[in-house]
Amino acid sequence: xxxxxxxxxxxxxxxxxxxxxxxxxxxxxxxxxxxxxxxxxxxxxxxxxxxxxxxxxxxxxxxxxxxxxxxxxxxxxxxxxxxxxxxxxxxxxxxxxxxxxxxxxxxxxxxxxxxxxxxxxxxxxxxxxxxxxxxxxxxxxxxxxxxxxxxxxxxxxxxxxxxxxxxxxxxxxxxxxxxxxxxxxxxxxxxxxxxxxxxxxxxxxxxxxxxxxx
Length: 214
Ligand code: GTP
Ligand code: MG
Hints:
Shape: globular
Bound molecules: guanosine-5'-triphosphate, magnesium ion
Structural class: alpha/beta
Number of helices: 6
Helix content: 25-40%
Distance between the termini: 30 Å
Oligomer: single chain
Strand order of the largest sheet: 1-3-4-2-5-6-7
Radius of gyration: 17 Å
């Protein structure tokens, strides 16, 4: 019994420190560091800043911007002095001529292609909405480029439990039309703190595995 408990506690994460490091528009200028990093990304208004603040117990670590989509920066935060949390701006189609070619903002794709420290991307999805084309396509792009990712369904408090359950079920069904497996996913609420421990413990488990393999 006690051993099991110790093993579980081992991958529990408490936030002891969270500091803003730097904002960059170019992946080449991101911190020259071997620390594992976890990227948070999703469409504008999905609740990214709120989630980052909820996870880190800070009121305004991630700034909520009055002009969404305007700042195109890669923001690094150092957590517990041993991993980076990266706040990426929302993705959308790059403005490429009249064609409907799916090209995500260049610096976002460059970030995922070049940042080898990035061990897991968290793709945020608003739990209230049916699957959106752009999110599906973005995850497909990640898959095609071998970028490991998880899904975080946000704003769970805005739905009645039954509706939430139905939405997640629908999302899974749609994902399984493309993927052989549903990626790891989490259900969160920045208002109630739902999902906080699950996301942090997941990160800690990866950190621990990386340390053991080092
Ligand atoms: P941009 O940076 O503008 O792209 O948005 P964002 O994805 O960072 O979203 P943000 O955290 O600023 O949240 C957008 C709105 O949703 C705000 O009004 C938040 O208060 C609200 N919100 C975010 N998360 C939650 C949540 O879990 N529950 C509820 N009820 N509201 C939320
Ligand atoms: Mg934001």
